[in-house]
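Supplementary material to the annual report.
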Amino acid sequence: MPELPEVETVPNRVDARVRGQRIGSVWLSRYKEPFKTSRTEMADALAGLRIERVRREGKHIVFDLSSGGCSHQITAQWVVHLGMTGRLLVLSPELPVEKHTHASLALSGGRELRFVDPRRFGRLAFYRLLIAADSFPGPGREPLTIAKDDFIALFRGRKLSIKAALLNQTLLHGVGNIYADESLFRAGIRPTRPAGRLSPARLLRLREALQHVLREAIARGGSSVSDYVDANGEKGLFQLEHRVYMRTGQPCVTCGKLIQRTVIAGRGTHYCLHCQR
DNA sequence: AGAAGGACCTGCACGC
DNA sequence: TGCGTGCAGGTCCTTC
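Predicted assembly:
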């Protein structure tokens, strides 16, 4: 499912339904071992903590947790990465447990928070915070707020293609395959161009295009390709605005030439040979 | 050190 | 109908 705009909608809606609630019993499937802690350690540590806030950090969903005292001090974080097919659901415990459910947290409000991930590319992690500065920062810079100069500096001297650079989460976090292709089309940049060879002016156009596409997609509830739905089961609408992504062989909306497909960094890459130079 | 490519999974659409 | 192939919103690890 998820790139920044899809992930953005999830914590907003989950937050509204779980904020202030205490985590009760925790069940975890034999999913892959969580990052840096064991499965049983994570389950034990989560039980009893209060959810103070749920928010997005790159493509990660961060649950800020307190021990439940009056101070509301954040002492731990539960971090969920949805991978390709992960979903977070807040449901009545009576509802049947869906196939590929890997985590289920009982909440004091009476509902259950469930993590479902058929393809198992997602990831769970638990962090204990000794000082607030340890707070989970995400791997790279935030594309929606990065300053112009910082954006240009990210790509300086890099030989890899601009498409691969956009997908690299240690540079910018949150950009995935759809919005990399869509922003490169809107900026008129060929995805194969070496990132370090693009002029500052072209990089600034890319920054504008990327931010525009991401904001637009957030406003439309993300892109629903195949079966993506958010925590409320609602579909996004941004897929209607896709100009190149998954439009191989269809006419370019600008020039009418056929959209091409190639593979960059192992990912399907869609572009217009005529409009992107 | 940076970059490329395979590995990890299930499910679906397609063609034979 | 059924099977094989290729493709899918993402990282992560190994190799060069």
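Strands of chain A lie at 23-28, 50-57, 60-66, 74-81, 87-91, 101-107, 112-116, 123-128, 260-264, 267-271.
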